[in-house]
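User: Quick sanity check before I run a bigger batch. Here is a single chain. Can you write out its predicted 3D structure?
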Amino acid sequence: MSVNSTLGSMAMMTLLGPIAGTVTEPPVTVRGNSLNAWIGLRLRMRRTWFGISNQELSENLRIDCDEINAYEAGTKRISANLLFRIAKRLDVVPDYFFQGYLGGLD
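Assistant: Done. Predicted structure follows.
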């Protein structure tokens, strides 16, 4: 399953979760630099679920918008400090970004 199809499936489940009473996410692996890509996927899902733009998040975190794009694409690794700040802004615990990850460590 590709990252894009995973995003669509997970976004649909996130939207349907409140209707069904639960939000379940399928276990999925991501190819390439899998952990960075997985965290980026989870970041994009949560950001868009809240209706927050890349620009708005980058301004709130005081980082460049291009960095948000790189994190979401999985091409740049997020530091622990920044991941904690992102989690706080998106109202989740940092563990959220690792939930469902089944790949090996990069």
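The helical segments are 3-20, 34-49, 54-61, 65-73, 80-89.

User: Great, the batch can go ahead then.
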